[in-house]
Design brief:
single chain, 79 residues, mainly alpha, 3 helices, flat
């Protein structure tokens, strides 16, 4: 049962990093870490179907989120 508490602490730390990060790309990566922690929690709780679904949804949403933030993070150059 200690694994669940370690994963919970990891997810809380990643969520705090996601909120406090200055740039959007770091926030997106930290949100992905929270999703991976949730996926591992489902595996520890012996729910592999939920873990697979969480992983698929997390990967797709993270790809969309990072594609959207990369365009906003690139500074405009007038030269």
């Amino acid at each position: 049962m200690i694994e669940i508490y370690l994963l919970l602490l990891f997810m809380i730390a990643a969520a705090i990093i996601a909120v406090e990060a200055k740039d959007l790309l770091s926030s997106g990566i930290a949100v992905g870490a929270v999703g991976i922690g949730l996926c591992m929690s489902f595996l520890v709780l012996k729910a592999p179907d939920l873990a697979i679904m969480q992983l698929v949804v997390e990967i797709l949403s993270l790809i969309i989120l990072i594609r959207a933030t990369i365009r906003k993070d690139i500074p405009f150059s007038a030269s």
